[in-house]
Amino acid sequence: MLVLKFFYPSLQNHGERFVFIAEWYDPNASLFRRYELLFYPGDGSVEMHDVKNHRTFLKRTKYEDLHLEDLFIGNKVNVFSRQLVLLDYGDQYTARQLGSRKEKTLALIKPDAVSKAGEIIEIISKAGFTLTKLKMMTLSRKEATDFHIDHQSRPFLNELIQFITSGPVIAMEILRDDAICEWKRLLGPANSGLARTDAPGSIRALFGTDGIRNAAHGPDSFACAARVRCF
User: Fold this and answer.
1) In the sheet where 130-137 sits, what is the strand order?
2) pLDDT in tens, 39-58
3) Over the Cα atoms of the chain, what is R_g?
4) Residue 169: HSE in the Cβ half-sphere, 13 Å Cα cutoff
5) How would DSSP label each residue in the chain?
6) Which residues are catalytic?
7) Which phi and psi (to 5°) does residue 43 adopt?
8) What is the DSSP pairing of strand 18-26 with strand 31-40?
C-alpha cells in the first residue's frame, strides 16, 4: 500500500475516478454482460453502467470490499455478489495511471506436455510470473472451443479441439506485468518447428512437436481468458 501511495499521490482526491471495462457471466441468461466499472478511491465508492444499453446499472455507492490494489487487468473482483472480470481500461487517464500495474492471464499446459509440467512451471516462475491458481482437468468440447475462440476461422480448429480434449490439461492463472504479451513471448511461435529456429528457449521449442501438439497455449485477449471458466 505504501508503494501505491508513492506512485499515486493524488489518490485522496475525492473527485478522482478510475474506469474499467468489466464482464459478468449471467448464469440465468447464459451470456456475458459487459459493464463500465467506475471506482472512486477518495471515498471507496463504485458505479456501474451497462455498456450495451448505455444505462446506469448501479448508482455511485460506497463499497468497502473493493480496493485500488484489486484493480488490474485480468483480475476478478466481486461487486455486490457479482464476480466481474476486468478486461480493459475504460479511459486514457486510467490507462496512464494504472497501466504499469500487474495483469493476470490464463495459461494451459496441453495433454502432450502434462508429464513435463514441473519443468514448464519452473520456466514460468523464472520468467517472473507468479502462479496464483492451478488445476488439472479434462476440457469439454465447449470449454476447449471457448479457450480457442481466437482460432474460430482457422482450418485446423477441429483437429486442435479434438487433441486438447483427448486427455488431462493443467490450467493455470499467472500474474505479472504485461502478462498476456509476456506469456505469448515465453510460449514462442505456435509451430514448434519454427519455435526451435526463431525462439529456441521458448516453451514450444523445448517441449512441443508441431503446430497442434505444441505443449502449451494462452489466450490472445483478456476477454477470451475470461470466457474460460476453469476456476
Assistant:
1) 130-137, 169-177, 102-109, 216-217
2) 999 999 999 999 999 999 99
3) 19
4) 26
5) -HHHHHH-GGGG-TT--EEEEEEEEETTTTEEEEEEEEEETTTTEEEEEETTTTEEEEEEEE-TT--GGG-STT-EEEETTEEEEEEEESSHHHHHHHTTSEEEEEEEE-GGGGGGHHHHHHHHHHTT-EEEEEEEE---HHHHHHHTGGGTT-TTHHHHHHHHTSS-EEEEEEEEETHHHHHHHHH--SSHHHHHHH-TTSHHHHH--SSSS-SEE--SSHHHHHH----
6) 217
7) -125, 5
8) antiparallel
Q: For residue 1, which amino acid is it?
A: M
Span 139-149, average pLDDT: 83
Tens of pLDDT, residues 208-231: 999 999 999 988 777 776 666 676
Q: How many CA atoms lie within 13 A of 77 on its CB side?
A: 25
In one-letter notation, the amino acid at residue 81 is S
Residue bearing cell 506436455:
113
